Amino acid sequence: MKNIFLAIAMLISVAGYSQIQSVSLTASGLTCSMCSKAIYKALLKVPGIKSVDVNIEKSSYEITFDKGATVSPEALKNAVEGAGFAVAQLDVMATLPKTTISSGTKITLQGSTYQFVKANGQTVQGVQKLTVIDKAYLSSAQWKRYVKELPAKRENGVFLVTL
Predict the structure, then answer these.
(1) Which residue of 116, 119, 121, 142 has the fewest C-beta atoms within 10 A of its own C-beta?
(2) What phi and psi values does residue 37 have, to the nearest 5 degrees?
(3) Average pLDDT of 62-69?
(4) Is it the case that residue 8 has pLDDT exceeding 70?
(5) Cα angle vertex 128, ends 112, 123, to 5°?
(6) What's residue 9's pLDDT?
(7) CA-to-CA distance for 94 and 107, rounded, in angstroms?
């Protein structure tokens, strides 16, 4: 019984420690500052977003979240597409406990599951940049770099990432 409580406590501490710090999103299809503003406004409407910092020159958005928020990459993508644009890259900055990551390893961060691709058993800890490599989150040129290495069978609702 004592071992069960210890295992539960360890799971709770890892879940509490693993969290998304911020997201860096690059959009495509922008032609002017009004386009950038449309995406900015759309992102601010997503529940749980604390702030959005825009870099017009790079068409990028640094997004931070309210404490305890559960915002998924899907919600961010939908906001950008709802504004009439596409996501060209999505990087998630997450704090991870000491973990060995291999291809196929899954982690859950704030309600979303991420599965690693192109990982070779490296040990990570602390803030890590996870690049979402699903087709809807990359430019077509970037997608071509990863498509051959993706698992043949994919689970719905699981985001593929690489370090």
Answers:
(1) 121
(2) -65, -35
(3) 91
(4) no
(5) 100
(6) 35
(7) 11
Q: Which amino acid is at 43?
A: L
Q: Is residue 5 part of a domain?
A: no
Q: Which of 7, 82, 96, 90 is nearest to 42 (CA)?
A: 82
Instruction: Tell me how far apart the alpha carbons of residues 112 and 161 are, in angstroms, rounded to a whole number.
Output: 12
Amino acid in position 132: V
Q: Which two tokens stand for residue 32?
A: 């002017």
Amino acid at the residue 103: S
In a domain, 144, yes or no: yes
Which CATH number does the domain housing residue 22 bear?
3.30.70.100
CA–CA separation, 135 and 128 (whole Å): 21
CB-based contact 48:66 (threshold 8 Å): yes
Predicted TM-score (pTM) of this structure: 0.84
Residue 31 vs residues 24, 56, 76, 83, 139: alpha-carbon distances, Å: 20, 10, 20, 13, 16
Q: What is the predicted pLDDT for the residue at 146?
A: 84
* Residue 3 belongs to some domain of the structure: no
H/E stretch holding 75 reads helix 73-82
Residue recorded with tokens 């409407």: 45
